[in-house]
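Lab notebook page, bench 4
Experiment: in silico fold of construct C2
Operator: M.H.
Input chain length: 131 residues
Purpose: comparison with the prior construct
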Amino acid sequence: MSKKIENIYFSPDLSNRERACFETGIKLGALYHIISGIPIRSDDKIVSSIEKGIEAAILCQPYVESVMIILDKDKILGNQNAPFNYDEITGKIIRAEIVLEYESIEILAKIDWIETMQYPLMFIEKIQELD
């Protein structure tokens, strides 16, 4: 593991690869739980502003290189044609991708609704050692 100041809190047996996976899990969990429950309606301007705002917030976290959030507009039910006609963001709506770099490890991780599981799965799609 590297000689970063925060490493005094981590086991010295932890590899850079394990630490990168840990950091990725933190970011995926934060993204999911920050965005879940936000009121929304099927208005492109509102959907885009939420996507961009949460992307910017997650990019503030250490080691995050890029974030892309796509809210599935086809699954948003509310359209505000009546005062109480809005939806809220749930796992069925969230699609996200994070690229994280810790030391020489780069991870591509995602959140995606897996229909066959009926579950918003968080997973590492790719992990690689950088030159």
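Observations: The radius of gyration is 17 Å. The chain has one domain: 12-129.
Next step: discuss at group meeting.
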